[in-house]
Amino acid sequence: MASPYIERILKARVYDVAIESPLDEAPRLSRRLGNRVLLKREDLQPVFSFKLRGAYNRIAHLSESAAKRGVVCASAGNHAQGVALAAKRRGIPAVIVMPQTTPQIKVQSVMDFGGEVILHGDDYDSALERALALARERNLIFVHAFDDPDVIAGQGTIAVEVLRQTGGNIDAIFVPVGGGGLISGIAVYMKYLYPNVRVIGVEPQDAASMYESLKAGKRVSLDRVGIFADGVAVKRVGEETFNLCRAHVDEIMLLDTDEICAAIQDVFEDTRSIVEPAGALAVAGIKKFVAREGWKDKRLVAINSGANMNFDRLRHVSERADLGGEREALLAVTIPEQPGSFMRMCETLGSRSVTEFSYRYESAKAAQLFVGFGLTQGRAERDAVIRSLREAQYTVTDMTDNEMAKLHVRYMVGGHARGIENELLYRFEFPERPGALLRFLQAVGTRWNITLFHYRNHGSDYGRVLTAIQVPPRERPDFLAHINDLHYAYVEETNNPVYRMFLGA
User: Fold this and answer.
1) 11 is catalytic
2) Known catalytic residue at 358
3) Rounded to two decimals, what is the model's pTM?
4) Which residue, 37, 147, 159, 385, is the most exposed by fewest CB within 10 angstroms?
5) How many CB atoms within 10 Å of residue 263?
6) What pLDDT does 340 receive?
């Protein structure tokens, strides 16, 4: 399987538009991890992403007659920009179908390159269906984002550069994985020349399509994917990319949002550049792998795959980076409601920096505190603080890994309601676009009384709501049927301990 791809990669036409991206040292991260970390700076490409390579190689290999028909693609943004620029370079029309949730910075970039933008659906798969329909209707050439030999070969030129820049003297290369085009091209070339170099893919936990497919031994379709790392938010990997990954990739690692945010900060601190969430996956993977394996003095390469970050999203990244880097902890602490109690609790914390503190009177006997504080020694320090508080007879709940606490409750602590019966609590997610919140409220309707509502725009592609609704027991079957008909992703949080401590009746 490798030989045809080796020739394709070596003959790939990418440098008419792409640069040979630098392989930069990451000195701060290297010192911290005890390994030499090298960053392959694909975020410095003209479209701030590696996707230009594969898109241009595919379009460059079209015959004159095929090219004149024009091209169409589906993309959440980076492939779209690559196709638009490649089409502009060749002087042919390009139609780009993008999910309606695509960050505006990517939509505008495609338009700047002269592409015709069509916004359709809430995810890549919906956009893909529309793009394939347009290809048939308008007789356009479809340029797949990842499952195409010319696209895979174009991405494989990154491996050629890495080996030339290092002389093959590396121990492992870490690659973000969405549909699989990037890691397929890199893995097939790397393993052909240096089979002992480990090729490790990295996916978000909530978009683990390649991980689940390799685990099952066949391609699987995820019911839904989280799109914080929108550049790799793919429900189903490619057929060709799956086969190549099964043959040549050593491992797929999974990361959560906090770990990705911490890696964005790591890259910034070494380069003063901001990569998008998908672009930070490889660095997050290196950190997790080194901690797991105890590697020292190894040479590790991370593919910084892109930098198309919405500025508004930086707020969310900043809030979560300290948690992902184990530089902050969140606790719920119950203290006696009496003078001096708060001071004594703070004394137990010692000289640590308090990053957040929320308090509300609950009863004549006890008060609930929401406390955030900085860490310098990670999880071990957090555990030590919890032990100290409990030894001082405080009731403590660790909320550092509680998603509801991090997304909502930290911004709204102190809302116990008295005398409310039959209250149910839910978290909802819905595609974020103008009017989305109003449409959500209209869909929920007015049959049941809403007793709590929290919404906060996190600068991401999905809006998040926490709401409590009074539903008498006899009406719960109707209520559940109703919210299932809304087709919004939701999680019931009625039994979440954070709800009982801070918000419940």
Assistant:
1) no
2) no
3) 0.78
4) 147
5) 31
6) 56
